[in-house]
Write a sequence for this structure.
């Protein structure tokens, strides 16, 4: 079939009729499918079920150092859990604080601490007139929700294949002292699935911020989430790069086992310089006596070490790779050449991004919803939920079983085609 | 022996010599004992060891409603955990949000939310010139540390046998709109061990705050922590009393299983009105996708219900009651009649409070420390760590084994006597 923008108005109207019939047929099926959130499937969760047996009633619940982990204390986590987290993100255990069940909560707390307590000895942000964050887009909606909640102004920065537009980042960070942070998902990014190049990481490390309390919020959420054993992205360790560049305190790095073991019952970690860590602990000791050390030990006993994590993640990959490939293969077969947009083919992470033609994303997502397929809301990958081109659609393939995913994909493809044709006819450009 | 203040100077000097010799002998023993923190003992923690087997690798990890608790979601906790928490504090499950491993963290977050987001539609406290909290004293040091961290001014209110000085509370709360809260440990209070009378609870419920965003921070930490099955304190349910009094939104109530199961790996809850709960959830959904639901189910399977909790707590009581009784019996036998102060005989909770003579607490605690016995720091039960009479000593008897506790008690008694004699001699009143 030829590209839609090469069709005459008559051809387009005929195509529209065909697609509308397809769409009506689809709606009549009364589907209830969900490709909206990056949640692991039941089968993925089953992979960690043996973790429930690694600590038992007759286990000695002590850390390696002999601490009774059933009691209060150990604010920054047991040593073996620090090692596990450090191994996942290629940093040193002494940089790590092990938290509770979610890195989202760490990120919230980190922004919150900066608001109330300030970063190191700097003025708490709640005392400032204006605080700004750079937001590479498309990005992770929950990051933007946190910064919006705290009244922080968000500035879009384009995200390319090899990372954010670093010219723009360098310019804004070095010229504006109200720019206090940037949200990054540097590896298999949400939702693009792309990773930052070595050059990008080094440019980050060499930033010369106007604000001394500027920090890079490095959400390494998909650090070990490869889809292919033989084609993996490799990310430079930002903490050591910053140290080398004379900016040791410029990063907070986050990670968790939420998509390694159980999504609500994992462990999470923050890695940063000794100076930042000491500052954080002065606040953390007011907030808590310590996090769940039994769950920390449970994770260590189950995952063991970096190699154990890699073996476990390979099992996840086996389960989800076919889902990613199903979608990209069908997009390739049924959409390419039509001029309806493009899509990513990630080597890891949890998402595929579809770049629909300008002005089509909302319509596609609304149509899919009416046909019983829930997608991530239009605009979600942007601050204030505003996609300036109304083009980006985040697709989360992991949760549904293959057959459902296949059905949902059919619906989605029909909606993409129909919305694209409608848009062309509206524009009157034929 | 006659009371010290009835002795002549010569008698006192002789007594001092005897005590100094005792103290030197004690120091020579090189003890290392700890009565400083309210931590459960190893034997108490062993009581919950079977909890490690209630969920296993072959368990179906679903909530009663069929939710896969291994995945993301369920922001306010699974229903059965809400019921468990509600049963512990005599409230309705629908009032409860189940959080993570510690109620301290909930309290921190609650103050924090009020600072940043405000209470319901009221001005965030960080925008106000002055925020004040009432602090019944002696009280819990970690409460005061939280309010101090946020720059909230703390006002001491005397705590009596039946609760805080309610005349003073009523006066301050109704006349000063900058008074936004009061910290309460209403049952087996930390450190006095006393409980609020029904009349006190009702006077709380009938408060007429000048500030609409005034809240009672009701830390029901020792709700089920009785020492005696036949002599238990009963606390009126503050939430329903407030509802009856036309103040449904005036309370945040906190509780946890930290001293029921494992101290770092329990579950915790906040109970409040539907209006407050809805407000809290709008912030909580920014902070987290949900807490550890597997640990919630683990607790429900292990403790079962209110009766299960009561049976379990009776086992704790058997272990710690002898420790409380050892101390109070020895104080009775060796200190009473000397005029060196008084002490509480709690029916529950985790602490005994010793009211030493004015000006003696710091000296006693310092002497004990030098002899190898760590007590809670002098002043800790007061805001800003300032005990205006330098009199209150918090004693935490649960952690040490009986023999160690007995040794520590000997040291403490010697220090109390010696410090009291020194004080009398200094004052020159004989």
């Amino acid at each position: 079939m030829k590209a839609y923008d090469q069709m005459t108005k008559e051809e387009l109207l005929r195509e529209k009729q065909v697609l509308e019939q397809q769409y009506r047929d689809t709606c009549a099926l009364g589907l209830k499918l969900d490709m909206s959130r990056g949640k692991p499937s039941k089968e993925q969760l089953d992979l960690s079920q043996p973790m429930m047996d690694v600590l038992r009633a007759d286990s000695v619940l002590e850390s390696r150092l002999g601490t009774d982990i059933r009691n209060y204390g150990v604010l920054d986590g047991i040593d073996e859990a620090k090692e596990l987290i450090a191994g996942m993100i290629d940093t040193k255990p002494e940089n790590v604080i092990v938290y509770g069940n979610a890195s989202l909560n760490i990120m919230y707390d980190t922004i919150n601490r900066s608001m109330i307590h300030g970063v190191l000895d700097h003025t708490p942000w709640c005392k400032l007139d204006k605080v700004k964050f750079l937001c590479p887009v498309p990005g992770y909606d929950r990051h933007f929700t946190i910064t919006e909640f705290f009244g922080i102004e968000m500035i879009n920065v384009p995200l390319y294949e090899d990372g954010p537009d670093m010219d723009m980042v360098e310019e804004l960070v070095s010229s504006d002292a109200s720019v206090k942070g940037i949200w990054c998902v540097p590896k298999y990014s949400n939702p693009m699935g792309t990773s930052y190049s070595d050059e990008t990481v080094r440019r980050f490390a060499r930033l010369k911020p106007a604000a001394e309390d500027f920090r890079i919020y490095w959400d390494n959420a998909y650090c070990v989430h490869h889809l292919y054993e033989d084609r993996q992205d490799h990310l430079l360790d930002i903490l050591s790069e910053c140290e080398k560049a004379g900016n040791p305190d410029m990063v907070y790095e986050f990670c968790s086992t939420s998509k390694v073991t159980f999504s609500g019952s994992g462990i999470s970690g923050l890695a940063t310089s000794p100076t930042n860590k000491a500052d954080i602990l002065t606040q953390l000791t007011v907030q808590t006596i310590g996090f769940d050390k039994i769950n920390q030990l449970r994770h260590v006993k189950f995952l063991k070490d970096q190699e154990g994590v890699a073996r476990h993640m390979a099992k996840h990959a086996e389960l989800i790779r076919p889902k990613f490939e199903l979608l990209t293969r069908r997009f390739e077969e049924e959409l390419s050449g039509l001029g309806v947009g493009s899509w990513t083919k990630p080597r890891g992470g949890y998402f595929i991004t579809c770049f629909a033609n300008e002005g089509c994303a909302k319509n596609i997502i609304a149509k899919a919803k009416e046909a019983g397929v829930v997608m991530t809301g239009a605009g979600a990958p942007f601050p204030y939920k505003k996609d300036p081109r109304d083009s980006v659609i985040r697709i989360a393939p992991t949760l549904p079983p293959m057959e459902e995913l296949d059905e949902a994909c059919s619906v989605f493809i029909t909606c993409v085609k129909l919305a694209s044709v409608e848009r062309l006819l509206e524009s009157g450009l034929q």
